[in-house]
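Form 7-S
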Amino acid sequence: MSSTEPALIPEIRHWLESFRPISLEEMEASHLMSRFDEKYIFHISKLHDFLRQLKDDYKVLSIRHRLLAEYENLYFDTPDLRSYHDHHNGKAARYKIRFRRYRDSGDCYFEVKRKDNRGLTHKERIAVRQMHRELSVPQIHFVERILNVPHLSLHPTLNNSFYRITLVNTENRERVTLDMLIHFQNSSRSKSLNYIVISEVKQERHFYNSAFKRLMQRERIFPISFSKYCVGTLLTHPGIKYNRFKPKLTLINKLSNERV
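Output:
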């Protein structure tokens, strides 16, 4: 991510000051490492109004008095991009492998995120000192143990950075993440999606009386299967198979043409 802060960031921080804060320790008291997820995307021009409508139902995660966090991911895949193609081909049980670094704190993890046949997302991770473009033997064994796939050949395929707001409703054990100013880069190409917000509702169980879900219904914004890894891979790999992802590209292009 660029060392120059995007112009919109101070304004977003100001909007978040009306929320009650919640600490990382309070939020992590109810772990959601296994959860049900639903994603929505919308134009960033709607963010201010949506936050205004949600402030009475959610607290905002505050880490060292920062309400807006910077994230960086480094994804790994097989030489034939199995993770990407499993998702593209509609395979229910699939996985993603990545390093994740929290730029504000410097904390870094190596993670395996997988979805089972029921649609339940599981995330397992180990703390590391920093991201590397070559996996260590213990990290490879960690992946093979979780996925039960021996001799998995992995190499770095995509860098991804973004800013995130995390909203928390402790009563419902619900989190809503709002990712924005998203940037993708591989060894030869880069692409930014600065005009969209990718939101994700994370719940221990499906809870339909969610303030965020009700807001999305009122706005006629519907759940969508949307993987930052897959979209970033598609946007930075010309010629890759993407038939099943055409509706997502259509939506991205439609949002890009919305007037702020």
